[in-house]
């Protein structure tokens, strides 16, 4: 049972309008947002930040951004966000081979060196204490420009917020996210955990 019960999607009209963004990314409005709208300024600010972070202004694709989110969520252990991130990666055109082998991104041939550098950055930046070092920086700069790196860290930071929010709330996971979690992550032990 979640710490705080989500409100109806039509509780706050401004949040509801902004949340249409999630119909594209996930196919539903996440329960996390429905909980945030108990303080509508938070839900609105979060959705606007999410839209800004996920906008593509450089070379980082929508699919890679969602895989960066998955690595970050996996590093912190948030099963809710793991399922959401892999679902969004699928919906934004990640290759089937990458979805099926996300756990092996460091060695699987479906990932190139630029993607590995980005995903390793996500892993290092999501750890406590932070593990971003000179080697991570050098690898990033081999493949990405500074604007791309800002976009990546925006995703990592956004999911740092979401990982803490959803694990602390014990946010109830939506059926569509469960399906994606079981399909792509279940073979490695993914389960809903506290997100019933």
From TrEMBL:
Pfam families: CMD. Residues 40-120 form the Carboxymuconolactone decarboxylase-like domain. It comes from the Bacteria. One of its GO terms (molecular function) is peroxiredoxin activity. Keywords: Oxidoreductase, Peroxidase. This is Putative peroxidase-related enzyme. It comes from Marinirhabdus gelatinilytica. The lineage of its organism: Bacteria, Pseudomonadati, Bacteroidota, Flavobacteriia, Flavobacteriales.
